[in-house]
Amino acid sequence: MIKAQDKMIARRADTKARADFATWKMMVKLNGASSLPTEALTFLASYKSLAETMAETEASEATIELIYKSYYADMGGTGTAPDVKSMPKEPIVDTSNVMAFKRPAPQPAPSVKSAPGARPRLPVALIFICLVLIYVGIRYFLLQ
Fold it and tell me: Keywords in UniProt for this one (predicted)?
């Protein structure tokens, strides 16, 4: 039985491994391999050797699996790294006080018709005309 904490570490390690591998491959394509750490260069070398013997997608998955196992051990996972693909997708209950982000329910769009008992809205042009009349009236009566 895998503990919830180890499942969380496994998912974080897998996500980080996939993101790092994609970043490293892009850096190599953009001729930025010299700025990569030695660990990344080691994994990319193993990827190239695997890519010569199998399909590119299989070589990528095998390399990501190696990176994942390394990250799992570095993040403090106990025992062997569990297979992330076989883990159920239900949310893992975290015992910390961090609250998960949930999107609010979508609000219905306001209808064109106003609710019963609500005052009708004045058009913007009518409000502007009233403001102009007030200004002209003040200028005419107070400055004469």
Answer: Membrane, Transmembrane, Transmembrane helix
